[in-house]
Amino acid sequence: MKTKTKFPTPQGANFYAELRRRVNDDFAERKISVNATGLMWLKTIIFLSLFTTIYLLILLSSFNLLTLIMLTLLLGIVSAFIGFNVCHDAIHGSFSSSKATNKVLSMFFHLVGASPYVWNITHNVVHHTYTNIPGHDEDIEIAPGLIRISPEDELRPHQRFQHWYAFPMYGLASLSWVLRKDFKKFFQKRIGARENSHPKIEYFNLFFYKSIYYCLFIVFPIVFMEIAWWQALTGFILLHLAQGITMGLVFQLAHVVEGTSFPTPNEHGNMEEAWAEHQMRTTANFATQCPIAAFFLGGLNRQIEHHLFPKVCHIHYGRISVIVKETALEFGIPYHENKTFSSALASHYRMLKKMGRPAVL
Question: Given 3-state DSSP classes, what are the helix, strand and coil percentages for the chain, each rounded to the nearest 5?
Answer without folding.
Answer: 65, 5, 30
